[in-house]
C-alpha cells in the first residue's frame, strides 16, 4: 500500500485561487477526484490526503463532500480561522465529517512571526481536543519561528509540509535549512512530508541526484517512522509529472528496508493522521 499524504483538488476560478499566477497557467483549470485517480494510476498509490488550497470554510466543506464520495480520499486537511473568535464553532461544524483529519493555514504567505501570534496560538490549542493534526506550511527561513511555535504546543501533533521548502540548487546546499530542520525534528510530535520539493528546485532541470542531499537530511532527521510520501499534485506538475516524481522517490528510498519502506510509503501517514482505511464509505 502507498498513501499520497499531500495533494490538492479545486474547482478553479481566478477570483478564488488568486495564488495561481500567470506563470502557473497549466494549473488554471479544475482538478477533480477523477483526475487524481488517473494521475496515480500505476504508481501503487491507493489512498490520498486532500489538503486545502484556499483559506475558506466553504472549500473545506466542499473537500469533505468529495471525500465522502471518493474511494481514493482517505482524509482532508481543511482550513478554519484559527486566530478568529469563532474557531470552535467552525471546528464543531467541520468535525461532523469523519474525513476531517487536520487543518492548515498558509503561513508561508504570512509575516515570519505569525506563528507566535497569541490569537493564532489559542486556536492551535483547541485542535488537540478535536483529535486534529496541524499541517505546518512554511518556507525554510521560517523554521526558527516554527521551532518556538511547536515548543508552545508540546501535545499537538504537527506535520511539516514539503520539508519546509528549502531553496534547492545542485551548486549550493541550503545549510541553514539543514540545521533548523534537524533541530525541529528533535520534537517527537512533529512528522514531515517529503513532498513539494521539485517546485523548490532553482535549476533548469532536476533529478533524484538533485534531491539526494535533502532526502538524506530529512531521513536522518525524522527517520522513516516520521517521514511520509506526498506528491503536492497538481502543483508538482509545474516541474514534474506524477509518475516521474514517484520514480524519483523510489530511487531515493531504494536503500530502505522493507519495513522502513512500509513506514515511509504508508504507515507514517496512517499514524500521524489516524487514518481508518478499512472504514467503508457507503455506510455499510
Which properties best describe this structure?
284 residues; TIM Barrel; eight-stranded parallel beta sheet; Amidohydrolase; hydrolase; hydrolase activity; Metal_Hydrolase; Metallo-dep_Lactonases
Describe the structure.
This protein has helices at residues 33-40, 57-69, 87-94, 118-130, 143-151, 175-184, 208-222, 242-252, 258-273, and strands at residues 2-7, 45-51, 73-78, 100-105, 133-136, 158-160, 190-194, 227-229. The protein has 284 residues and is α/β, with parallel strands linked by helices. The chain has one domain: Alpha-Beta Barrel (TIM Barrel). It has an eight-stranded parallel sheet, with helices on both faces. Helix 5 packs parallel to helix 6 (175-184). The longest helix has 16 residues, at 258-273. The protein is globular, with a radius of gyration of 18 Å. The chain starts with a strand and ends in an 11-residue tail after the last helix. The mean pLDDT is 96.
Q: Strands of the biggest beta sheet: in what spatial order?
A: 1-2-3-4-5-6-7-8
Strand-pairing-aware structural class: alpha/beta
Gross morphology: globular
What is the level-2 CATH architecture name?
Alpha-Beta Barrel
What oligomeric arrangement do these chains adopt?
single chain
CATH topology: TIM Barrel
Question: What is the topology?
Answer:
Blueprint: E1 2-7, H1 33-40, E2 45-51, H2 57-69, E3 73-78, H3 87-94, E4 100-105, H4 118-130, E5 133-136, H5 143-151, E6 158-160, H6 175-184, E7 190-194, H7 208-222, E8 227-229, H8 242-252, H9 258-273
Parallel strand pairs: 1-2, 2-3, 3-4, 4-5, 5-6, 6-7, 7-8
Helix pairs in contact: 5-6, 6-7, 7-8
Protein name: Amidohydrolase
GO molecular function: hydrolase activity
Pfam family, one: Amidohydro_2
Amino acid at each position: 500500500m502507498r498513501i499520497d499524504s499531500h495533494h490538492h483538488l479545486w474547482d478553479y476560478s481566478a477570483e478564488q485561487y488568486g495564488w495561481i499566477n500567470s506563470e502557473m497557467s497549466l494549473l488554471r483549470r479544475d482538478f477533480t477526484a477523477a483526475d487524481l485517480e488517473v494521475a496515480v494510476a500505476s504508481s501503487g498509490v491507493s489512498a490520498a490526503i486532500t489538503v486545502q488550497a484556499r483559506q475558506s470554510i466553504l472549500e473545506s466543506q466542499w473537500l469533505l463532500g468529495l471525500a465522502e464520495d471518493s474511494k481514493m480520499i482517505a482524509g482532508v486537511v481543511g482550513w478554519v480561522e484559527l486566530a478568529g473568535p469563532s474557531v470552535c464553532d467552525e471546528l464543531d461544524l467541520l468535525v461532523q465529517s469523519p474525513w476531517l483529519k487536520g487543518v492548515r493555514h498558509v503561513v508561508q504567505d504570512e509575516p515570519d512571526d505569525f506563528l507566535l501570534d497569541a490569537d493564532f496560538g489559542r486556536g492551535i490549542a483547541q485542535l488537540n481536543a478535536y483529535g486534529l493534526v496541524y499541517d505546518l506550511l512554511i518556507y525554510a527561513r521560517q523554521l526558527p519561528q516554527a521551532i518556538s511555535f511547536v515548543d508552545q504546543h508540546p501535545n499537538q501533533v504537527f506535520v511539516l509540509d514539503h520539508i519546509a521548502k528549502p531553496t534547492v540548487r545542485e551548486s549550493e546546499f541550503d545549510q541553514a535549512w539543514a540545521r533548523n530542520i534537524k533541530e525541529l525534528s528533535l520534537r517527537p510530535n512533529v512528522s514531515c512530508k517529503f513532498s513539494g520539493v521539485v517546485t523548490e528546485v532553482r535549476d533548469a532541470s532536476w533529478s533524484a541526484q538533485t534531491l539526494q542531499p535533502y532526502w538524506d537530511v530529512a531521513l536522518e532527521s525524522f527517520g522513516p517512522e516520521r517521514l511520509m510520501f506526498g506528491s503536492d499534485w497538481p502543483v508538482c506538475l509545474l516541474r514534474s509529472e506524477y509518475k516521474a516524481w514517484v520514480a524519483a522517490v523510489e530511487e531515493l528510498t531504494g536503500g530502505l528496508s522493507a519495513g522502513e519502506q512500509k513506514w515511509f510509503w504508508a504507515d507514517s501517514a496512517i499514524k500521524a493522521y489516524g487514518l481508518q482505511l478499512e472504514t467503508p464509505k457507503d455506510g455499510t
